[in-house]
Amino acid sequence: MRGRWLELLVLLTVTAGAGLSCARALPAPAANGTSPAAGPVAADPTTPVPGPPDPAAELALSYERSCARMLSGLVKCWGLGYDDAPRTSPVAVAGIARAVQLAVGPTHACARLESGRLRCFGANEGGALGDGTREPATAASVDPGIEAATDVAVGTDFTCTRVGSESLCWGDNRRGSLALGTLSAGELRPVVVPALTGARALSLGGRHGLAIVEEGAVVGWGDDAHGIIGTTTAAKPAPIRLASLLHVREIASSSSHACARFDSGTVACWGDNDAGQLGDGTTTRRDGPAHVLGLSNVVQIAVGERTSCARHDSGAVSCWGANEHGQLGDGTTTSRSKAARVPGLGSVAQVAVGGSHACALLIGGEVQCWGANANGELGDRTQTSRNIRGPVLF
Length: 394
Fold this sequence. Notes:
Distance between the termini: 27 Å
CATH architecture of one domain: 7 Propeller
Order of helices and strands: HHEEEEEEEEEEEEEEEEEEEEEEEEEEEE
CATH topology of one domain: Methylamine Dehydrogenase, Chain H
Largest sheet: 4 strands, antiparallel
Mean pLDDT: 89
Strand order of the largest sheet: 1-2-3-4
Shape: globular
Radius of gyration: 20 Å
Number of helices: 2
CATH superfamily of one domain: Regulator of chromosome condensation 1/beta-lactamase-inhibitor protein II
């Protein structure tokens, strides 16, 4: 329901031509990567200010790639493609129409369509595309055969979806990623996961998974090399309940750390913390949740490899963790172990984090990105990294 409301808000904003991102052009960055002073811009009241011709409605990032689901239902991606070719501006993905959800991972991506079916593309060595083969697909032509899917999530070489009260997974299972209770080569087609019946939300990171279950509790399974599921590093092929997590509204996981948003609007993170990505003011790894300092009124979270971000109910965004490529968007390359606001964004509808870059979807459908850009993942037609936000050039 929230996603539909957001798309309607985006549509109304663009139609009216008076949204925050449509009424004011963002200043171009200086050559040294700093942001020029931004004063008020006078608008001619007799000249309508157009919005994006097909505004973005959702973002999904992973490592060196970025994708956006457009309001039209098309999907556009930029950065490092699954064919290992860099793209410095958005390109439409062939084979996708009427998409309503997008999931992008390190090895592959899937879109959920209005019909409830899925379209997947990318690498397929572990069978993550779900078509019974191990052949890759550069176009989104692979249909795993799911009908009436209500959610989709992707990890490294595996995929999971929810259909009604059931969850189905497929792909590589050598580290227990499919939550079937055993280790195996994997499944080339979707299989029902009885242990995840009734799951309310799924988040896959690396070769592990997390799910929100009854009472807002969280269960985890799969590879545990970074202490996200328990206190040992052994693979856990069957879901186990994580201690100290109740009343969780949202979960987000990278390959090495995870965060949870609670009903209270606060956030806790756990796992690796070498760059301060847990936001607890330290760089100490945590096997259990540690509350992020100074965060309140959070309505959405996103995590990348060593960076985390949160969106507040005001539309502002805070980030913390690694910043060697400017992925905190604060104009520096200094990592932070405490959350700090990303300046100059305006009102944000969604924040997303990749390997070493991040993007924000603004109310009105414009997208701003910052951080690493070696493969064009910022979508600004360059391969120059930046430590302040800049527009994606659709």
